[in-house]
Amino acid sequence: MGIRKLGYVGLDVTDVDAWTDLLGRTLGIGVTTEKSGTDEVTLAELDMFKYRLALYPAAHDRPRHVGWIVDTPAELDRLTGRLTDAGHTVEDGTPQEARLRGATRLRRFTDPVGYRVELAVGETKARTAVARPDGTQPGATGLGHFVLASPRLEELRELYENVLEFRLTDYRAPGLYFLRCNPTHHSIALAHADTASLHHLEFEHGSIDDVGRSYDRAKANGAPISISLGRHMNDKALSFYVRNPSGFHLEIGCGGIEVGEDWVPHDFGVSDVWGHHHAEANPFASPAS
């Protein structure tokens, strides 16, 4: 009970057209648009749900909010109490925000980094199937996880593990922790860095072939492949990464493992089974303490 899964990520972006081109031509992901006040919000069609990745036109590129789906209104109230007891100010989202997200209830607070975190009850299905630009199925199947890097690592761990009740799956010492809120290996990873940033956001795909087709399109369209095709050591996912127009990574992956109640957290040692060669220096090659 409590938080069930990663629901959505909202980004402020300076170049919506470049994002739309990357999503469509390179990753095979279509978009729709919705009005939110005076803004036209671009929504990526990752799966049948309305609100997964939302792009808001802005003067600066930065994370706008991250949303976690909560099981029930009672669980939302319980988590609100835990957050309040831990010193966080929790507020209700506006009716307009709730409608856009497809939520029946919406609350928000600010994490130790300064990012807005939302807790939502309910999701709205916008479609029964997703039409891919290249006609392949299933392609992208949803939003997987994200990695948040920050100098306030211990405060973030306190929030997610002790207040929001995420469980530690595994780690690389020192300074990189993978957390779960359901059987999926991880929905968020927390890392130490000198400045706060979203290191990457992962799109789940249905098969190795879907990842491979995206990889071919990325190379054909000259997309900046920032980390080559490879398989991670800890969750066994096969993936590659592209640098998106906002400057961080998008991971295109499939095949991550699930873990059971008897799973024992451990240091998984090296980052990859094979591949995942970085075009630039890997900030997590030797995580800072």
UniProtKB/TrEMBL annotation:
<dbReference type="GO" id="GO:0008198">
    <property type="term" value="F:ferrous iron binding"/>
</dbReference>
<feature type="domain" description="VOC">
    <location>
        <begin position="5"/>
        <end position="122"/>
    </location>
</feature>
<dbReference type="InterPro" id="IPR004360">
    <property type="entry name" value="Glyas_Fos-R_dOase_dom"/>
</dbReference>
<keyword id="KW-0408">Iron</keyword>
<dbReference type="Pfam" id="PF00903">
    <property type="entry name" value="Glyoxalase"/>
</dbReference>
<comment type="similarity">
    <text>Belongs to the extradiol ring-cleavage dioxygenase family.</text>
</comment>
<dbReference type="InterPro" id="IPR029068">
    <property type="entry name" value="Glyas_Bleomycin-R_OHBP_Dase"/>
</dbReference>
<keyword id="KW-0058">Aromatic hydrocarbons catabolism</keyword>
<keyword id="KW-0223">Dioxygenase</keyword>
<keyword id="KW-0479">Metal-binding</keyword>
<dbReference type="InterPro" id="IPR000486">
    <property type="entry name" value="Xdiol_ring_cleave_dOase_1/2"/>
</dbReference>
<protein>
    <submittedName>
        <fullName>VOC family protein</fullName>
    </submittedName>
</protein>
<dbReference type="GO" id="GO:0051213">
    <property type="term" value="F:dioxygenase activity"/>
</dbReference>
<keyword id="KW-0560">Oxidoreductase</keyword>
<dbReference type="InterPro" id="IPR037523">
    <property type="entry name" value="VOC_core"/>
</dbReference>
<feature type="domain" description="VOC">
    <location>
        <begin position="142"/>
        <end position="255"/>
    </location>
</feature>
